[in-house]
Structures are given as C-alpha cells and as structure tokens.
Design goal:
Radius of gyration: 18 Å
Largest sheet: none
Strand content: under 5%
Number of helices: 11
Length: 224
C-alpha cells in the first residue's frame, strides 16, 4: 500500500477519534497530494459485483464506489470505504433523508462522467487508480472544467462528507458495516456499561459494540 494511503488512514483514524467518531469535511487530507507515481502500481479498483441500489443505477454506483475508496482506502486487515459499505450508506441516504440531494448527485455524476471522457476518453469508474486520483484532485482544487452545478469542489466536498458519514455513522443507517469505522477508532456505542477504569483510561474501548439493526436485519432468522 502506498505510503500516502497509509498516512491518510492514520490521519483519518486520529481525527475521527478526536471528534467522537463524527463525520466532517475537515477529516480528509488533500487528495491531490497523491501523485501518479505513488499510486501507479496499485491494481484497478474495478469491481465485478453487479450493483443494484435504492437510488443509484449500476453505473453510478460503480462511480461512487470508485470515488469513495481513495478517500478512505483499505489496507490489509483494515477496512476501507468499500468494506465499510459507504456506497450502501450514500445510496440509502439519497433515497431517504438526503432525497433533496438526488438532483445534486445526478448532475454531479453526469458532469464527472463528461469530464473523465473528455480528459481521458474513459468513464471515471474505468480509469486506473492514478488517473482517478488526478480527477478527484482536480475536483478538490476546483480546476476540473465543465462543472456548473454542482461546482466541482462542491461535489467533491459533499461526496467526501458522505463518505466519512458512511464510515463512522451508526450502522443502522447502512454504512459502518460490521462496525468497521468504530473498530478503527476503538469506539463502542454501548451505554450504561462504562466503569471508572474505562473513564480514566486513554486506551480505546475494546468491548464488542452493541448489535444494531443492520446486524439484526442480516441475521439468518431475519433472512428466513
């Protein structure tokens, strides 16, 4: 894994822990700092899984998955955006609480697709990791052409914020699968079960988090 990705993970984990595992725009360092040379050896982030969603079609789902992963990349034994179910979180949010952002995402994704094809003659989701990083960096720095509404930087900031929410929000909302984000920051949502030793320590809370509706919904009994 490139050193910059490793550093980004460490930064995110420290920032999320310090903020009480809350999402925020300030949690992610400068994406454009990832150079093509640093990431050119990384394998393509393409997925063979057929993606069906509550809001996204298959093409848009693949684009969001490819966009979110470099914002919080996975590492051996450490889940990233894909493993944490960030795509599912954003998809469900756009079909519910964030329904007012549906047009924002539709227009943003259409402009992202047009920019990728104009710059590299290929869909964003099919670009190699280095070029995906270049595109994301152009959005972050507001240098990507062809974006009117939403503006390039506005679209980047929104997807970044929703990626962080998908990583660290309560799993009841569809992300943070298997408590991936909470485990990264040593957080448990258990209440009424803290002792004096817990409150006085600086170590992460290591007991198993409480089971959420996500886990209950995925149980064999519920699927039967």
């Amino acid at each position: 894994m490139p050193k910059h990705d490793t550093g980004r993970r460490a930064f995110l984990i420290r920032a999320a822990a310090g903020a009480g595992a809350a999402a925020g725009a300030g949690l992610v360092p400068n994406v454009s700092a990832q150079t093509r040379e640093q990431r050119k050896q990384a394998p393509p982030r393409h997925s063979n899984i057929i993606l069906h969603g509550a809001f996204f079609n298959q093409e848009d789902a693949a684009t969001i998955a490819a966009f979110a992963e470099p914002l919080m990349p996975g590492a051996p034994g450490k889940p990233g955006a894909r493993e944490a179910g960030v795509l599912r979180y954003i998809d469900l949010a756009l079909s519910g609480a964030y329904a007012d952002l549906q047009d924002f995402y539709r227009r943003g994704l259409a402009q992202l697709e047009a920019y990728g094809r104009k710059a590299y003659d290929q869909s964003f989701a099919r670009l190699d990791p280095a070029r995906q990083d270049e595109v994301i960096g152009a959005l972050e720095q507001a240098t990507a052409n062809g974006f009117t509404w939403p503006a390039a930087q506005e679209f980047f900031n929104t997807v970044r914020t929703h990626t962080m929410e998908g990583l660290f929000a309560d799993p009841i909302y569809g992300g943070n699968k298997n408590f991936a984000g909470w485990r990264l920051v040593g957080f448990s949502r258990r209440t009424g079960d803290f002792h004096a030793a817990d409150l006085g320590t600086k170590q992460g809370f290591t007991r198993v988090p409480i089971i959420g509706l996500q886990a209950a919904d995925e149980s064999p009994k519920r699927r039967a």
